[in-house]
């Protein structure tokens, strides 16, 4: 992922409602939600939700599929993984024996409690 793509994706997520939509879609998985489901679950007015969905689509963090006359939105997991990889590109992994002091891995057990 290029820096400008990461900035676009991070910018799209840097808004409370969009972040909530994205996190809900991540939880749902590939099945996704219809706009009506998202409105019901998040309490976001339809015009506002439409704006946020467009921003997340523009950043390629979500995609839409049509089933008959219904539209379903779901998270783009490849794009999400690409963003995570970009953010952690220079960071050590849990399997590395030498780590930069700025990048200390957190043991799996501690991450689950946080």
UniProtKB/TrEMBL annotation:
Pfam family, one: HTH_20
Domain of life: Bacteria
Organism: Steroidobacter gossypii
Protein name: Winged helix-turn-helix transcriptional regulator
Alphabetical keyword list: DNA-binding, Transcription, Transcription regulation
PROSITE patterns: HTH_ARSR_2
Domain HTH arsR-type, first and last residues per copy: 1-95
SUPFAM superfamilies, sorted: Winged helix' DNA-binding domain
Keyword Nucleotide-binding attached: no
């Amino acid at each position: 992922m290029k820096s400008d793509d990461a900035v676009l994706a991070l910018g799209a997520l840097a808004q409370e409602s969009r972040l909530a939509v994205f996190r809900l879609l991540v939880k749902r998985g590939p099945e996704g939600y219809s706009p009506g489901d998202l409105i019901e679950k998040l309490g976001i007015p339809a015009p506002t939700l439409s704006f946020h969905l467009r921003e997340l689509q523009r950043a390629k963090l979500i995609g839409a599929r049509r089933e008959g006359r219904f539209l379903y939105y779901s998270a783009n997991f490849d794009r999400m993984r690409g963003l995570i990889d970009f953010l952690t590109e220079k960071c050590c992994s849990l399997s590395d024996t030498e780590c930069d002091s700025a990048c200390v891995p957190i043991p799996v057990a501690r991450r689950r409690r946080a």
